[in-house]
Design a protein that fits this description.
This protein is an alpha+beta fold. The chain folds into 2 domains: about 220 residues, PPM-type phosphatase domain (Phosphatase 2c, domain 1, 4-Layer Sandwich), CATH 3.60.40.10; about 160 residues, no CATH class. The chain has 10 helices and 18 strands. The strands form 3 sheets. A 7-stranded mixed β-sheet has the order 14-15-16-13-12-17-18, with helices on both faces. The chain has a 6-stranded antiparallel β-sheet with strand order 2-3-4-5-9-8, with helices on one face. The chain has a 5-stranded antiparallel β-sheet with strand order 1-11-10-6-7.
């Protein structure tokens, strides 16, 4: 099973930073990941610092080999209480998920997570650990065994308290209201991704407010166990030309979604397999070369320029005004879970044209940078193979 995870957030109205903080890391060697969602007291910079500190310390403790329950206890017993509001400086939810379905969750102060299986909400058993320092502070510890199709939804109180005080929702959206919306959405779209579902929850919370302005920081993290969506990207001609047919055939016969990045690479596969490449001029957007089409291949783009621009989009975000070839490649990557790059090692002299922009890197370095972003920022599983 693959663990699909994502978090969507919305800042409190009129604030310039998030008061909640989400942190996750995948550990391919252990077939597991750890995710932390922390809600800092108040909003703005102060809340952001408190939430960031809490989430970062928890992840570092576990990475250093500390028992997760012990690490959470240390944090729970150490977080100060605000002298004015008499509540903790931050709250947190931590999930340790293995790909075999073993999940351990510890929550302190955040709204109780929602466990959805077979279209129903399951209320699992838990143990309570009381704080040695603060009488009103408790941790809830869960041990679950998830199966294919199961989901876990975590959120900050900006979701459950959305609409608080409205004539129709005097107590806010609450957990019960969120569950209702989640079940309806999943029933309508059974294969909805974690990214789409978390964004849906944030929109619901924001739209629940009378003026559609977030009265608190809103965060929603979704963990979804499903079959992995596999993708294969072929870019650059192989070092040994006599192996062109072998690699072209291997690429084309793959059951994964397929993309080709590079005109030389596309022509190579077209030549070896006798499949024509068609340039789609009507799909030309922006300054990048237009995408092409090839039977049996999901996406065909130009190489270095498009890869470089895609890295920029992945790293810094995307301008909605220009949905160019790099945007299509970015969407192709983000809609995949396990991504493999076949990177040809043969040098292309065109990449050393002094008239090309100086920031263009050689193909190998671009793909390495893209791999790191996909792994660290988007929690994808990526493999590189040089041919």
């Amino acid at each position: 099973m693959f663990i699909d995870i994502d978090c969507a957030q919305e800042k409190k109205y009129n604030q310039n930073t998030y008061g909640d903080y989400f942190l996750s890391k995948r550990y391919p060697d252990k077939d597991a990941l750890i995710a932390v969602l922390s809600d800092g007291l108040g909003s703005g910079i102060k809340a952001n610092i408190l939430a960031t500190m809490t989430a970062t310390m928890l992840l570092k403790f576990v990475e250093a080999g500390a028992d997760m329950k012990m690490a959470c206890e240390v944090i729970m017993n150490s977080l100060p209480v605000c002298k004015v509001r008499k509540i903790s400086y931050s709250t947190f939810s931590v999930a340790h998920c293995s790909e075999d379905g073993e999940v351990k969750i510890i929550e302190e102060g955040n709204p109780k997570f929602i466990y959805i299986s077979d279209g129903k909400v399951i209320e699992p058993e838990y143990t309570v650990i009381d704080s040695d320092t603060f009488k009103n502070r408790h941790m809830h510890v869960y041990k679950l065994k998830l199966k294919l199709g199961d989901r876990l939804v975590f959120c900050s109180d900006g979701v459950t308290q959305a609409g608080l005080g409205n004539p129709e929702l005097k107590l806010g959206l609450r957990r019960s209201g969120l569950m209702r919306f989640l079940l309806e959405k999943i029933n309508d779209t059974p294969d909805i991704s974690s990214s789409e579902l978390s964004q849906f929850v944030v929109r619901i919370a924001k739209n629940t407010e009378t003026d559609r302005k977030a009265k608190d920081d809103i965060s929603c993290c979704v963990i979804y166990y499903r079959e992995p969506r596999r993708a294969l990207i072929f870019t650059g001609p192989p070092y040994h030309q006599e192996k062109d047919y072998e690699y072209a055939h291997e690429f084309y016969e793959s059951k994964a979604k397929k993309a080709i990045c590079g005109g030389t690479t596309a022509n190579l596969i077209s030549r070896e397999l006798q499949i024509p490449v068609k340039c789609n001029i009507t799909r030309s957007v922006g300054k990048l070369p237009a995408v092409s089409s090839m039977e049996g291949v999901d996406l065909v783009t130009e190489g270095i320029l498009t890869l470089t621009r895609t890295v920029e989009y992945l790293e810094n975000g995307f301008n909605e005004k220009e949905k160019d070839a790099a945007y299509e490649l970015m969407q192709f990557l983000l809609n995949s879970d396990c991504i493999e790059f076949m990177v040809g090692a043969k040098l292309n002299q065109a990449h050393y044209d002094p008239n090309l922009p100086i920031e263009i890197e050689i193909r190998k370095n671009i793909v390495k940078k893209m791999t790191k972003i996909l792994e660290d920022k988007y929690i994808k599983r990526v493999t590189l193979r040089y041919i």
